[in-house]
Design a protein that fits this description.
heterodimer, A: alpha+beta, 2 domains, 4 strands, rod-shaped, B: alpha+beta, de novo design (two linked rop proteins)
Chain lengths: 238, 441
């Protein structure tokens, strides 16, 4: 064979083989790319999208109560500027439930709720109370609503007890504001004060996370547990 | 260098009277010469074919990623062996490094250097094969062949150095190329020594050889550029995959993880114990494009300890490290420095596997270790305020309805598509930055 022809034959073979292989690989990749693009546009991504929490305990009744409180506090449908000025409402109008049924709604929150205890006739948070409030607030996770339900014991005048419970709720809010300077506070905290007349806590709540669980000198009685603010993040889409 | 045939070291060099123009008589003269040179030529041919095979394996692995998906790749001295069993490997690290391909800013993925290796080895195989069949090598032909073998040998040396000093990983397929190059160079030298005869056309032959070699590289490159999948002009790529709905940092949760004065504002959603985040960070640092970004990080630990969006912790310990970063950066108390947070991030990246393993069984131990390594986070780590801050970080993710995955990168508010964060990083970034600059004008 002529040497030039030999060179051309060998050279062409050496060039055509890699060109054909590379061309084939690229063609396959291009085909897969086109198929993937078509599949992506036909089917939405199955990667989950970040969202607030929605726990199983979010019953319609619980959501209704939270919504009413949120509405009363100006948290819904606005800028949240009304967060500090919840309008007083009667507990019955908020709950439309018996006291027992109202409390039953919160039973699934046993791991999430904290009970902040106060001294009799007192609306100031003690150190244990402050620490418990801070702990509760920091454990927000995916919740979008911080519920403060304050109460008073049945000792004394009912009207005064309502005022006491209202101030206890404000005391919790005030401490959160002072401690965390959280701009979302006004959008997230709803206050409900029950005084002594509605949904009193039973002694079974003494077993929940509470600010004086370690204070042996103050035994947990029904009156003690109701001189309190029940605080909890609600893992429901409100 | 008046004439390359002057480089005749053999004692029995014939006179400069013959040529290899192809006439039957001249071929007969050539065939009559010593055939011993066929031995190094055959070995050189084998080395070139091996090199081409390794380079083809590497190119094939590279090319399959042009469909923008993640594939397993070969990582063995035996190219015919099964593909790697795991996604992470030194071979992948090398493939995704900016040194694996050229012109990355102009073409998605760039042109793989292994493609040119195929061309060079194919050219060597052609030259060696031709001389082997002919059974005779003139001095000028041997010299050119030897010189041609030096190209892959020198490139191999350069790439070996890059792999060691810059990438920190060596791929086995690449080592196959290195060894083939070395062997080809050795047999090229032996071929030169055993080559005999000259025809006075050495310089012309050398020039022609250069043209031929360039043609091999050019034609294969042309085929590649013609056939490579083109980005969808209507979606993805530089157009991005969505925008941030609420990019503002109202709660002070972002950390300047790679600040760059005058750089394009960029947000990376990351998890300090996420291997993909680490890999992305490494790629971005290695890329010159990284210096054009003013990067802030939003922490998104995929750890169920603090993140309600994951039912099982993908990266245990990520919450603790995220807290430490927020503490160190000063996002909680106002006392700190983002550079300190960056140190924690680098430390977490460097010890990812070990930290994740520890956190699975001893999360408090991990927190103590963080306090030991970074004393500045003491008193803040694990506190209510930093937990609150981390929650705010997660809620920023929710407010922007982002996918539950990391990393996610937003260039001037536009999300870089996930498939563009590895091989297509430079191409996509350069085009997105050009778009961002245009928008700012």
């Amino acid at each position: 064979m002529n040497d030039t022809v030999l060179k051309i034959v060998v050279g062409a073979f050496a060039l055509i083989v890699p060109c054909a292989k590379v061309s084939g690989w690229l063609g396959d990749a291009g085909k897969r790319y086109a198929e993937n693009r078509a599949a992506m546009s036909a089917k939405p991504s199955d990667v989950p999208v970040a969202a607030m929490a929605e726990d199983q305990y979010c019953t319609p009744q619980l959501k209704a109560i939270v919504r009413r409180v949120a509405g009363a506090c100006g948290l819904l449908g606005g800028s949240g500027e009304g967060g500090r000025g919840c309008q007083p409402q009667t507990a019955q109008s908020v709950a439309s439930l018996s006291g027992e049924d109202f409390n039953a709604l919160f039973l699934p929150l046993s791991k999430r709720a904290h009970i902040i205890q106060f001294d009799a006739e007192n609306t100031e948070l003690d150190d244990l109370g402050k620490a418990e409030v801070e702990k509760a607030w920091a454990d927000q996770r995916g919740a979008s609503f911080f519920f403060v339900v304050s109460r008073a014991s049945t000792d004394g005048d009912a009207k005064k007890n309502e005022e006491l419970s209202a101030k206890r709720a404000q005391s919790v809010l005030g401490h959160l504001d002072a401690k965390f300077h959280d701009p979302d506070l006004k959008k997230e905290v709803g206050l409900l004060w029950l005084g002594e007349g509605f949904a009193q806590l039973g002694p079974e709540f003494c077993g929940w996370q509470r600010s004086r669980s370690t204070a042996a000198e103050t035994p947990c009685t029904e009156k003690e547990i109701n001189r309190s603010a029940f605080v909890a993040w609600i893992d429901c889409a409100i | 260098m008046a004439n390359l045939d002057d480089y005749d070291l053999s004692p029995d060099a014939p006179s400069k009277s013959t040529d290899d123009s192809g006439s039957t008589d001249e071929m007969g003269q050539l065939k009559g010469a010593s055939g011993l040179v066929r031995i190094p030529l055959a070995l050189l041919l084998i080395a070139a074919l091996c090199g081409a095979w390794f380079a083809a394996t590497s190119t094939s692995d590279f090319v399959q990623h042009l469909d923008r998906e993640v594939h397993k790749i070969h990582c063995s001295y035996n190219p015919s062996a099964e593909i790697e069993s795991t996604i992470e490997s030194p071979c992948r690290t090398v493939m995704l490094s900016p040194y694996s391909s050229w012109f990355r800013q102009d073409y998605w993925g760039g042109i793989p250097v292994s493609l040119w290796a195929i061309a060079v080895f194919a050219f060597l195989a052609y030259r060696a094969g031709h001389l082997l069949v002919r059974g005779r090598s003139l001095r000028s032909e041997g010299f050119f062949l030897m010189m041609a073998t030096l190209l892959p040998a020198l490139m191999s040396a350069l790439y070996y150095w890059l792999a060691i000093s810059k990438v920190g990983a060596i791929c086995k397929v690449c080592q196959g190329i290195y060894w083939s190059s070395a062997a080809a160079a050795v047999f090229g030298i032996v071929t030169l020594v055993m080559s005999k005869g000259s025809d006075g056309k050495g310089i012309g032959r050398f020039a022609l050889g250069l043209v031929e070699g360039t043609a091999f590289v050019g034609i294969l490159t042309g085929v590649y550029l013609t056939m490579a999948p083109k980005a969808d002009p209507n979606a993805g790529g530089p157009k991005g995959c969505g925008t941030l709905a609420q990019p503002a940092d109202e709660n002070g949760i972002m950390i300047a993880i790679a600040p760059q004065a005058g750089g394009t504002p960029t947000i990376e959603v990351l998890d300090p114990l996420c291997p993909s985040c680490k890999a992305f960070d490494t790629r971005l640092r290695a890329s010159e494009m990284g210096s054009k970004l003013d990067m802030k990080g939003v922490l998104f630990p995929l750890d169920a300890t603090c993140n309600w969006m994951v039912t099982q912790s993908m990266h245990p310990g990520a919450c603790a490290i995220s807290e430490a970063m927020l503490c160190a950066a000063g996002n909680v108390t106002g006392q700190g420095n983002p550079a300190e947070a960056r140190k924690i991030l680098d430390w977490a990246f460097a010890h990812q596997e070990e930290l994740t393993t520890q956190a699975k069984t001893d999360e408090p131990g991990l927190r103590k270790r963080l306090e030991t390594e970074f004393p500045g986070v003491k008193g803040c780590l694990g506190g209510n305020q930093v937990k609150n801050k981390l929650t705010k970080s997660l809620r920023w993710i929710v407010a922007n309805a982002l996918n539950v995955l990391t990393p996610q990168v937003f260039i001037n508010g536009t999300r870089m598509c996930d498939e563009d964060t590895d091989l297509g990083l430079e191409y996509t970034l350069s085009h997105m930055l050009a778009g961002a600059a245009g928008a700012r004008k």
